[in-house]
Amino acid sequence: MRPIRLALLLCVSLVVLPSVGMAQRRLPPPSKEAAMFSFAPVAKKAAPAVVNVYVRGHLPPTRTQRAEDEFYRRFFGERFGMPEERVQNSLGSGVIVHPDGLVVTNTHVVKVGGNAEIKVVLSDKREFDARVVMQDEKADIAILKLEGGVQKFEFMEFADSDDLEVGDLVLAIGNPFGVGQTVTQGIVSALARTEIGQSEAQVFIQTDAAINPGNSGGALVDMSGRLAGINTAIYSQTGASHGIGFAIPSNLVKLFVESAITGRKVARPWIGAKVEPVTRDIADALGIERAAGAVVTRVTQRSAAADAGLLVGDVITSVDGTGVDDPRALVYRLTTRGIGNAAKLQVVRKNRIQTVELQLRAAPEPGKNDVRNLTGNHPFDGARVATIVPALADELGLDEEQGVVILSVRQGSVAANLGFSPGDIVLSVGGAPMDSAATLEGQFRERRAMWQVEVKRLGRLVNLQIRG
Predict the structure, then answer these.
(1) Active site residues
(2) Residue 203 in contact with residue 334, Cβ under 8 Å?
(3) Which end of the chain, N or C, is less surrounded by CB atoms within 10 Å?
(4) Residue 365 DSSP class
């Protein structure tokens, strides 16, 4: 038991222990200390590191704006000839996590458009310009650097988010609704929530501490005044707090901060296996009691999973002794364990529990010939395509291990006019499977009267017949 938790339990016991009858008669607290218990020391320690983040972005005119501008210019003269930029503002919070002025916030706070101007206001009202050092949309984490400061900044130390337990007291500090720095108190309501985010990398701490718009990027603080998480989302039908808020665990945040300091990109481990949630039907079929864990449905040859001896049908139930309820929790545990390390997986195989040691390594990167810009008299003119390799599949969230994916399509090109779009996976052309960008490019050296193209789009197979 940690000292701070023990101290809190002792304080509570002074109120609870005298008798049940005393509690029912609503007698006053038995001591001055019990009546005056306060979170002020924790808030005083943590608050100076929590900042307000103001972002102002300039967006180019939309196509509609340009069309309207052309209409007014034609009839009312050249003074109507310059469409105005749209200005988009964002308000959020952040946490200083390094004395040199590194600030953690959410990507969705700072991503408001090109040429964004970022202003950070400290708790003592000092203002600094800031720039984005790195950002990750999957994790919704952005790292900022305060500009123009030669002094050292007060910062918040990281807690070990794996030490949190349901019921622990926490504080949420941020700038809700732009009213100024605000502290709210609650408990850890749940751990390892994975049903909330859109990315497989997102696992959240749930808390009932009030989190409202403007709190995004703010601090979830433990009772030692350390950073336990970055507040990032709420469950609400009105936009206001209903006591269901979510924070990114500090152990994942710390990984990105260390990456920003060292200049190394955060690489998520590639195990070379496809895993899916364990449903009740799968659990019954495999003869396991709990419908929890990650079941292996595919193992890639010459991968970490293959080297470790993982088999199709294995159910991964824990990583280094910590249980995982689904594939997202598995990805989170492996990510925070880190590339270059080994993880011990507990696996249920044919009703027997086994331990497998998995070496964590980065996915193979694309080669210089794996990306092609296609041009010419064919359906894919204007498309930028890439061979699907593990690193790219991980980055784009693709299930496929083979094929060619469209990365971008030039506006007004043949490919754009035919409806091809980023994310489309080209499986075959003229019945021939497409296993690389070079193979696809080679199909267009000769002109054809008809092109037969098989594409996977948003999970559905689409067969196209296109005149040459």
Answers:
(1) 108, 140, 216
(2) no
(3) N
(4) P
| Residue 71 CB contacts under 8 Å (≥ 6 apart), including other chains | none
Average pLDDT for residues 194-202, to the nearest whole number? 62
Give a yes or no: residue 232 inside a domain: yes
Query: What SS3 state is found at 368?
Result: coil
Task: Note the pTM of the prediction, 2 decimals.
Answer: 0.73
Element (H, E) at 118: strand 117-121
| Strand, helix or coil for residue 215 | coil
Q: Are 211 and 174 in contact (CB under 8 A)?
A: yes
In which residue are the tokens 């999973």 written? 305
Which among 249, 226, 123, 235 has a CA at the least distance from the CA of 171? 226
Question: Over pLDDT 90: what percentage of the chain?
Answer: 30
Same-domain status, 85 and 217: yes
Contact (Cβ atoms closer than 8 angstroms) between residue 106 and residue 94: no
Report yes or no on 364 lying in a domain.
no
Domain that holds residue 277: 273-359
Helix (H) or strand (E) holding 75: helix 63-76
Task: Give 38's strand partners.
Answer: none
Identify the helix (H) or strand (E) that includes residue 108: helix 107-110
Helix (H/G/I), strand (E/B), else coil: 317:
strand
